[in-house]
């Protein structure tokens, strides 16, 4: 019963946060000093009467409360409407961009979670070693460095300096692949993929390494490890037991970070001209494309809130004391 109460409470909080997030998006866009069509009148591209027709077409001439209710209804039924600037469904813009972001960031997150967690466990088990000091200094440096700065340095060294990898985009300008296999499993894609992938792995490595290291350090002197040592287990076997009992913070952090993946790493996508959801959002904001901005931010906010809820539930399931303390 206590877990059911915990689940209901967390779900209600998630629903409220989602409503607040989408309301902030709506209010922020409507507070801008001009709408997407104002510049067209100033440039002479459209007459005022034509602009009024466009405003009526997109419902921007209706009372603000009517716009808000329609906005909420459309968002929660995933009907994002038409892009104001591209004149095509927003889902056709957001969908491929979101997939490109996930293809870049999810493998990078999985890679750094596995490699950095194992390295962190080894560093925590061998406190004071050169490996611990080197790994902490290196990963902290890359975590403290903005990801776009790391990306720029990678471009300078490996693209402009050595010429090993292309600098921008997800594929060569003349490439026109058809289908997922040709798009994401070609040599041309791999060449464009390596640098942004590397920048992402380096940026997130410090989080997982320090979480794993600190968890192992806390457990190294615990009673259950003393028992295993008395049973004659080797150092590596004891490290395996300590690492297994250190997975809780790593699993929950991975869930939280997965939710944030839907935001993309906006600055990284801009630096590498990667056609992900972060770059699509920047372009939509610059063009004041209300439907695209609303859809992109809604998906980002919803993903973060849902994965936070998932992390809370996982933590409560794996550690009952959290559930009991919350309820």
Question: Would you write up a description of this structure?
Answer:
- It is found in: Cell membrane.
- This is Peptide ABC transporter permease.
- Keywords: Cell membrane, Membrane, Transmembrane, Transmembrane helix, Transport.
- It comes from Haloarcula mannanilytica.
- InterPro entries: BPD_transp_1_N, MetI-like, MetI-like_sf.
- With 327 residues, the chain is mainly alpha-helical.
- The protein has two domains: 3-76, no CATH class; 91-317, MetI-like fold, CATH 1.10.3720.10.
- Helix content is 76%, strand content 0%.
- The chain is built from 16 helices and no strands.
- It has helices spanning 2-30, 38-42, 48-57, 64-76, 90-125, 130-144, 147-161, 180-184, 187-220, 223-230, 235-244, 247-261, 266-271, 277-286, 290-318, 320-326.
- Helix 5 runs antiparallel to helix 12 and helix 15 (290-318) crosses helix 16.
- The chain is globular.
- It starts with a helix and ends with a helix.
- The mean pLDDT is 75.
Strand count: 0
What is the residue-mean pLDDT, rounded to a whole number?
A: 75
Radius of gyration: 24 Å
Q: Output the CATH topology of the largest domain.
A: MetI-like fold
Order of helices and strands, N to C? HHHHHHHHHHHHHHHH
Contiguous low-pLDDT stretches (5 residues minimum) are none
Principal-axes geometry comes out as globular
Strand content: under 5%
Major sheet: none
Membrane topology: Multi-pass membrane protein
Subcellular location: Cell membrane
Protein name: Peptide ABC transporter permease
Main location: membrane
